[in-house]
Amino acid sequence: MPVASVSKIAKTQLVDMVADKTSLTKVQSESAVSAMLDAVVRSLQDGKSVGLPGLGTLNVKETAARTGVKPGTSEKIQIPAGKKVSFKVASTLKGEL
After folding, report:
1. Which CATH code is given to the segment(s) 11-96?
2. CB 3.0-4.6 Å disulfide test: which of 28, 74, 77, 79 passes with 24?
3. Where are the domains of the chain?
4. Is-above-0.90 flag for pTM?
5. What are phi and psi of 78, to 5 degrees?
6. What is the mean pLDDT of residues 52-69?
C-alpha cells in the first residue's frame, strides 16, 4: 500500500501541542515532554515494557544471531544477536486508523 506523503512531528511540535492543550508554558511543556521521553527510554533500557494507553505498548525483544547477505557483493556475513524495540498498536487506535 503506497503512502502518498509521509510527515513527521518533531519534538518541538509535540511541545507546542502540549502547551496548547494545557495551561503549561512552552518551557514547562518541554520539560514535561523530555521527562516522559526519558522515562520511556530508561524503562526500555531496563528491559521493561512501556504501555501508553490509547497508543500501544513498547517492548525490548532479543534478536538471534543469523547469517545475512551483504548487498551488492552477495557475500555471506554473520549478524550478531542483539536487541530491538517493538511496538504493538493498541486495538482502540488500530480501529481508528
Report:
1. 4.10.520.10
2. 28
3. 11-96
4. no
5. -95, 125
6. 93
